[in-house]
Write a structure and sequence with these properties.
Largest sheet: none
Distance between the termini: 52 Å
Number of strands: 0
Keywords: Membrane, Transmembrane, Transmembrane helix
Radius of gyration: 20 Å
InterPro entries: Acyl_transf_3_dom (IPR002656), Bact_Transport_Assoc (IPR052529)
Number of helices: 19
Helix content: 55-70%
Oligomer: single chain
GO molecular function, one term: acyltransferase activity, transferring groups other than amino-acyl groups
Shape: globular
Organism: Thermopolyspora flexuosa
Pfam family, one: Acyl_transf_3
Structural class: mainly alpha
C-alpha cells in the first residue's frame, strides 16, 4: 500500500525550522458545514454543483491515498492521477468557503440576531472540528488529518462572514501572497518563543499537533490555506446561476491557472535556475533514502517559486484556485444545463453531501486495515474505495438526511445558535 508516513505527533522541541511532514502531503476532505441546503437564493443546479465538485474531490483524495502512483501508469490515467495531487485538497478548501456562505446566505451577514446565530453555528462547528480532529490525530494515521485544520479555518473565517465579494477577494490575494512568507516564521523566530507557545497550547499538549502546526508548519497551514477559503467565500457571494457570471469565472479561473503554473515555470526555468536546483536536491535526498519535500529541503526562494503539489507557494495557491474555480463552474453548469443528469448523478452527489463521514471512514480503514493485502493492486483498492463509498452514501441517504458525522456537527450547532437572541 502506498501509504504516507506523517511526522509523529511529537511536542515542539525548539526545532520548528523543518516541518516533520508526511512524505507526500495527501489530499483530504471534510464537510465541516452541512450540505448546502441552507443557502439562500441559490438555484438547484448551483447547490448540486457544489456537491458534485466535492464528490470529485473525494474521489481525487482516494486516488492520492490508495491509488497507483502516477509514474506507474500511462495515458489518461496518469494525467488524472497527477491532476489529483495537491488540487483535490485545494478544491476541498475552496468548497469549504463556498459552504460557509451558502449556510449563511449569499449576502454578507450583519450584527443583528440572525447574524449572531450564524456566527455561533460556525463557531460551534469549528470548535467541534478542532476537538474531534485533535482526537483523530491520536490514532497516528499514516496520512495527515485535515479535520482540525478546518476547525481553525472556520474560526479565522468568522470575521469575514460580514464581508462582500471584493473584500474577500482581497483577503484571498493577501493570504496567497503573504501567507507563504508568514509560514517561514519558524526560520527566524527564536525556538524558545515557539516552545513557550507550544507549552501552553492545549491541543499540542494533548496530541502534539497544536496551533503552531495548524497555522504555520502543518500539512495545511492556515496562514496560506485561508486563501482558498476566502476565495470560495467570494465566489459564493456571486449569482452562480447567472450564465454571465459563470463565463467571467471561467475566464478568471483560466487566467489564475495560467498565472500560477505558468508563472512558476518561467520563474523557475527562465529567470532563475530554481528548477534545476530543486531537481538536484530531490535526487540527492531520495538517493539517501529520504523523501524530498521543498518545504523541508528547499531554500526560501525555492519555496516561494515552485508550484509543486502541496508546496503552498504563491504560485501553487494561485494556480490551484484557478483550477478549483473551473471545476466548480463546470459542475454547476453541467447540472444547470442538463437537469436530466441530476437523477443518474444522484449516487455521486450523495457522496458529496457526507464527505466528513466518508473521509473519517477512509482514514480509519487505511490506519487499521491492510486493504491492499486483501484487495491486491492499488488500482483495485482505488476502485473498491470509490464504489464502496458511493454505495454507502446512497444507502445512508435513502434513510437519513445527513451523514452520521454531519449530523453530529449540525445538531449541537443548531441547538446552541437557537439560544442566541
Amino acid at each position: 500500500m502506498k501509504h504516507t508516513v506523517p511526522a509523529a505527533p511529537t511536542e515542539h522541541s525548539g526545532n520548528l525550522t523543518t516541518r516533520n511532514r508526511a512524505p507526500v502531503r495527501p489530499d483530504r476532505p471534510t464537510d465541516a458545514v452541512p450540505s448546502p441546503e441552507a443557502g439562500h437564493g441559490a438555484g438547484t443546479g448551483r447547490l448540486l454543483g457544489v456537491d458534485l465538485a466535492r464528490a470529485l474531490a473525494i474521489y481525487g483524495m482516494f486516488a492520492v491515498h490508495v491509488g497507483p502512483s502516477p509514474d506507474s501508469v500511462e495515458g489518461l490515467a496518469r494525467t488524472l492521477l497527477t491532476f489529483a495531487h495537491g488540487r483535490s485538497a485545494a478544491l476541498f478548501a475552496l468548497l469549504a468557503g463556498v459552504s460557509l456562505v451558502l449556510m449563511s446566505g449569499r449576502e454578507p451577514i450583519g450584527r443583528d440576531a440572525t447574524g449572531r446565530r450564524v456566527r455561533v453555528r460556525v463557531a460551534v462547528r469549528a470548535l467541534i472540528l478542532l476537538v474531534f480532529g485533535t482526537a483523530l490525530t491520536l490514532i497516528h494515521s499514516t496520512i495527515w488529518v485535515v479535520v482540525p485544520y478546518y476547525g481553525l479555518f472556520f474560526l479565522l473565517a468568522l470575521p469575514a462572514l460580514g464581508l462582500a465579494a471584493p473584500a474577500l477577494v482581497t483577503l484571498a490575494a493577501l493570504s496567497a501572497l503573504g501567507g507563504p512568507v508568514v509560514t517561514m516564521a519558524p526560520l527566524v523566530v527564536p525556538p524558545e518563543l515557539l516552545d513557550t507557545v507550544a507549552a501552553y497550547d492545549p491541543l499540542n499538549l494533548v496530541s502534539g499537533h497544536g496551533l503552531i502546526e495548524l497555522f504555520l508548519v502543518g500539512g495545511f497551514p492556515a496562514a496560506s490555506w485561508m486563501a482558498y477559503v476566502f476565495a470560495g467565500m467570494a465566489i459564493a457571494r456571486l449569482d452562480l446561476v447567472a450564465e454571465a457570471v459563470r463565463h467571467r469565472l471561467v475566464k478568471a479561473g483560466a487566467a489564475l491557472a495560467a498565472l500560477g503554473y505558468g508563472g512558476s515555470w518561467l520563474a523557475c526555468n527562465v529567470f532563475t535556475d530554481v528548477q534545476a536546483r530543486v531537481e538536484a536536491t530531490a535526487a540527492a535526498v531520495e538517493a539517501a533514502g529520504g523523501h524530498f519535500d521543498v518545504l523541508d529541503h528547499g531554500t526560501p526562494l525555492e519555496r516561494l517559486l515552485v508550484a509543486l503539489p502541496h508546496s503552498s507557494s504563491p504560485f501553487e495557491i494561485t494556480g490551484n484556485i484557478g483550477v478549483a474555480i473551473l471545476v466548480l463552474v463546470a459542475a454547476i453548469t453541467l447540472l444547470e444545463a442538463r437537469p436530466g443528469l441530476r437523477g443518474p448523478a444522484g449516487p455521486v452527489l450523495a457522496v458529496g453531501t457526507m464527505s466528513l463521514t466518508v473521509y473519517v471512514v477512509h482514514i480509519l480503514l487505511i490506519r487499521y486495515v491492510d486493504v491492499e493485502a486483501h484487495l491486491g493492486s492499488p488500482t483495485t483498492v482505488l476502485a473498491v474505495f470509490v464504489v464502496a463509498a458511493t454505495l454507502f452514501a446512497v444507502a445512508w441517504k435513502r434513510v437519513f438526511r445527513r451523514g452520521p458525522l454531519e449530523f453530529l456537527l449540525h445538531f449541537p450547532a443548531v441547538r446552541l445558535s437557537g439560544m442566541v437572541r
